[in-house]
């Protein structure tokens, strides 16, 4: 039996997917949530085979949930289901270890078959796309320290490497200076670094320069 967990902030979407899966003899929906916080808390305990995650949520992202849950239990496969065809989100999904990235206009039968394939351990992300994204982020994208960073934190890392002050980063990203300070503290802690200069050296040494961060 394939155990599935659903995360979407729209009840109608969750109900529709649940009803689609409930008629399948080999699939069981073991839980659902409308927020990233609840899903991150509950999924590791329920241990589904596949988590179907909405990319954009009021309190975060299903991509962040995928990364956080898989850092605890990498046996749980993540399938991102979104309304947005976004290269940035696709890149974040790759870095978060998602097994698939699907648009919500997918046919029901295709979603069911995709869940089965992902449960078998298959990756539905195009190999060429993954290779290109990994090349853009250098050969160290599998560094667990990078995987621990959210897309927002990776942008902060890029700006740190550019030598921007917290105020300049805040102006660039439309964030309060205090918020930027908290992000910088989190980034350095997750990377195991003590100073901003060390972060800049890491980015330069590992070829992680990203023009999209500006």
TrEMBL record:
GO molecular function, a single term: DNA binding
Example GO BP: regulation of DNA-templated transcription
Alphabetized Pfam families for the sequence: GerE, Response_reg
Gene3D superfamilies per UniProt: 3.40.50.2300
Signal peptide stretch: none
Modified residues annotated as 4-aspartylphosphate in this record: 54
CDD domains (alphabetical): LuxR_C_like, REC_NarL-like
Stretches assigned to the Response regulatory domain: 3-119
This protein's name: Transcriptional regulator
Organism: Knoellia sinensis KCTC 19936
């Amino acid at each position: 039996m394939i155990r599935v967990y659903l995360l979407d902030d729209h009840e109608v979407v969750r109900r529709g997917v649940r009803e689609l899966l409930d008629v399948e003899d080999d699939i069981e929906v073991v839980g659902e949530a409308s927020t990233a916080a609840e899903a991150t808390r509950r999924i590791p305990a329920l241990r589904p085979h596949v988590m179907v995650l909405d990319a954009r949520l009021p309190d975060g992202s299903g991509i962040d949930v995928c990364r956080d849950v898989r850092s605890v239990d990498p046996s749980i496969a993540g399938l991102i289901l979104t309304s947005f065809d976004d290269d940035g989100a696709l890149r974040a999904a790759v870095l978060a270890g998602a097994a698939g990235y699907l648009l919500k206009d997918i046919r029901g039968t295709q979603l069911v078959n995709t869940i089965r394939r992902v449960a078998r351990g298959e990756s539905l992300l195009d190999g060429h796309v993954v290779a290109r994204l990994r090349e853009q982020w250098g050969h160290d994208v599998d560094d667990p320290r990078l995987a621990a960073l959210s897309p927002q934190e990776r942008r902060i890392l890029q700006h740190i490497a550019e030598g921007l002050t917290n105020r300049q980063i805040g102006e660039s990203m439309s964030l309060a200076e205090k918020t930027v300070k908290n992000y910088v503290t989190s980034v350095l802690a997750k990377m195991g670094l003590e100073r901003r200069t060390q972060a800049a050296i890491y980015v330069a040494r590992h070829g992680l320069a990203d023009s999209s961060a500006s």
